[in-house]
Amino acid sequence: MCKQEKVEHTQWEQDKLELPKMIRQPTEQDIPKTDSMFNIWKERKKTSLHQGFNYTENDKTDTINFKFYSEINVDNSSLFKLFNSLIETIEGEAYVVYKTHSDEEVFYYDQKLQINEIKNRLIELEYDLTNNCSIDIGVVHNEQELIEIYIDESKFIKYWGSDEETFRKILNRQGISEFDSLKFVDQFPKIVYDLNFLEEDRMSTEELISVIKNKFN
After folding, report:
1. Is residue 130 domain-resident?
2. Considering the domain boundaries, does residue 114 fall inside one?
3. Phi, psi at residue 178, to the nearest 5°?
4. How many domains is the chain partitioned into structurally?
5. pLDDT tens digits, residue range 179-193?
6. What residue numbers bound the domain in which 106 lies?
7. Structure pTM?
């Protein structure tokens, strides 16, 4: 059963970016009556999110072994394809890492596995990982150089790496351009529904975490 028809909050009509249906636009009644929060809410009503990526050089490569950091807006239906392509910039072994919204900055690391094995195990969870907006999931390689690829809980991608040429080729193949200034959905107030509230046959966040642990421990 799907409760989609019972959800009163809509998404932002002006957006050119496809967001997961769990992320919704708050009404004015949902926003705390402070000037700062209300102004951000009003700004969002005039902001159109779109696909794109930013690029930031790492000025501390001597102490943190990666050359650049990027955040990427991608249509939700193309999110896992891009995630998989970026995982292929890793050779050898990596960790799967994850956290829930309530964990704040606490990440859970599981055992190292070959990158192809990680891809094979993650693809079975594609729908839940790209639509459950209460969990971050990522792949981390930290041997000769640091490479990290995360799907943020708000379902954009964060990437740390050193091979700029390959990175840009992957983004170009998917038609995603670079922007000096780019807005992301988590910069603004939003309503987030549990996936299994809208789709009762889907796993809860707790069930999804349990499945991830079983797959990667």
Report:
1. yes
2. yes
3. -85, 140
4. 1
5. 999 999 999 999 999
6. 65-70+78-173
7. 0.93
- 203: in domain: no
The answer to the question of residue 31 being in a domain is: no
For the chain, give the secondary structure using H, E and C. CECHHHCCCCCCCCCCCCCCCCEECCCHHHCCCCHHHHHHHHHHCCCCCCCEECCEECCCCCCCCCCEEEEEECCHHHHHHHHHHHHCCCCCEEEEEEEEHHHCCCCEECCCEEHHHHHHHHHCCHHHHHHCCCEEEEEEEECCCEEEEEECCCCCEEEEECCHHHHHHHHHHCCCCECCCCCCHHHCCCEECCHHHHECCCCCHHHHHHHHHHHHC
pLDDT at 1: 40
Q: How far is CA 156 from CA 135, 183, 213, 216, in A?
A: 12, 11, 23, 23
The string of pLDDT tens digits covering residues 117-167 is 999 999 999 999 999 999 999 999 988 899 999 999 999 999 999 999 999
**What b/e sequence results for 57-84 when a residue is b if at least 16 CB atoms lie within 10 Å of its CB, and e otherwise?**
ebeeeeeebbbbbbbbbbbbeebbebbe
